Structure formats: structure tokens, C-alpha cells
Amino acid sequence: MHNSGHDFSDDERAGLYRAIYERRDVRSQFLPDPIPRPVLARLLNAAHHAPSVGFMQPWDFILIDSPEIREQVLASFNEENAKAAKNYTGERQQTYRSLKLQGITESPMNLCITCNRSRGGDHVLGRNSVVEMDLFSTCLAVQNLWLAARAEGIGVGWVSIIDQSRLASILNLPENVYPLAYLCLGYVSEFLDKPELETKGWRSRLPLEGLVHSNRWGAEPDDEALLEQLRR
Ligand SMILES: Cc1cc2c(cc1C)N(C[C@H](O)[C@H](O)[C@H](O)COP(=O)(O)O)c1[nH]c(=O)[nH]c(=O)c1N2
């Protein structure tokens, strides 16, 4: 059968999967080396080629190198992180406190990807029933950038332990613009083999076979051949 969409070479396909499997959330391994502008432009362009509801392209990219702004963001992180630590007790809390959950000042740059909730006007194609579709679209821009960064040898860390309204005010965001992702970017000393949360015993990857259902929630697929592949 001729399949003209099957036009990735084996190497190209392997490269894409490699970026997917070897992408990591980076917090501790940042090097101070600046990101060359052509590389940064490629990452932003990768993000800008994400799918978006009604082709809304709700994202903007705030490049942050100001030490003062980063210190303000870090202060919000420290406050929110102290609150978050109180959700745990005993050994779990000790483990939580031992986790490094941001690289705001060590990374050579921070990037906030925002979602402009009113871009495209009142009626965006595909956003009529579920208004959050713009946020989901912006998440895809984040993931595009994250994968492209991996292929460029650049680590990305997502810091969500920040008060969003404080972040919006630090970055001077207009009313309709939501600070969707606060990211730390930079070259790294290494990409870890596994998520740090797994290595540190916080949580491990769930078996995929238990997450695949057939037609209705809870019904295990009776496709043994597929299940066997999923167990690998
Ligand atoms: C929306 C969102 C928000 C956050 C994260 C991720 C995502 C998708 N992650 C990273 C997260 O812990 C990590 O992705 C998982 O542990 C899996 O590890 P790898 O990304 O595969 O290395 C993350 N990590 C961290 O150290 N501090 C944080 O605030 C956050 N916040």
C-alpha cells in the first residue's frame, strides 16, 4: 500500500521519539552559558507552530533576564513552597523539602509563556463549548518548546509553585493575559535518565496497560497483542 504520509526516515522518527523519551524537567543541572539567539529563535518558533483552537495562537513569550524580576518570582516561589510543604508530614515532608523544585536564578534565562484569553475576539472556532481550549492550546506550545529544547541540548524546568496573580503583576500582564507557564531554560550538565521525582522515591511511572480502556471507563481491552506491547 502506498502511504505518502509515511515520509519520515527511520532516523528522523527515532530522533523525535528520543526527544520525547529523553526530555526532562530540569531544576538542578543548569549551566550559566547563554542560549545563542538563533537557538532561542528556533525554540520560540517551535512553540509558535503548536496547534491551537481555531488557530487562535493565544500565546506570547516573555523573555526574562532581569535579576530583579527573577528575585521577585523566586520570593513568590519560596512563599508558596513553604505553604506546599505543610501539606505533608514526617518523612514525606522531609523528602518534599529535599526536592529542588526550581532553577529560577541559576538558569541563564526564564521564559513566561502566557495565554491571551481574548485573542481572536468573542467567537473562536472550536472554543464555543469549552472555553478553556485556549489554555490547552498554550500548553501544547509549551510542550513543543520543551521537546525542541531537548533536541537542542537545552533543559527546561516548569515552575508552578508561584502565586499566579502575583506573577501577573510582577510581569505587568494585562487583565486578559494569563501566565500559563513559568519556565527556566539553559544548557545542562546532564539530562537525567528518569524523572527526579521517580529517582527520589516520590512517585513512579504508572504501568501504561492499566491506563488503557476499551470503549468505556474500566473495561480492559481484550486485545492481548496490544496489551503485551504496552507491558514492554
Ligand atoms: C504543568 C506542570 C507543572 C510543573 C511540572 C510539570 C508540569 C507539566 N514540573 C515538572 C514535573 O515534576 C515533571 O515533569 C515530572 O516529575 C516528570 O519528570 P520529567 O519531566 O519526565 O523529567 C515541576 N517541577 C518542579 O520541580 N517544580 C514545579 O513547580 C513543577 N511544576
UniProtKB/TrEMBL annotation:
GO biological process terms on file: cobalamin biosynthetic process
EC top class, as a word: oxidoreductase
Listed EC numbers: 1.13.11.79
Domain of life: Bacteria
GO molecular function, one term: nucleotide binding
Annotated signal sequence range: none
Segments forming domain Nitroreductase: 20-187
InterPro entries to which the protein is assigned, alphabetical: BluB, Nitroreductase, Nitroreductase-like, Nitroreductase/BluB
Keywords for the protein's UniProt record, in alphabetical order: Flavoprotein, FMN, NAD, NADP, Nucleotide-binding, Oxidoreductase
Reactions this protein catalyses: FMNH2 + O2 = dialurate + 5,6-dimethylbenzimidazole + D-erythrose 4-phosphate + H(+)
Family: Belongs to the BluB family.
Summary of subunit composition and partner proteins: Homooctamer.
PANTHER family cross-referenced by the UniProt entry: IODOTYROSINE DEIODINASE 1, NADPH NITROREDUCTASE
Stated name of the protein: 5,6-dimethylbenzimidazole synthase
Organism (species): Marinobacter adhaerens
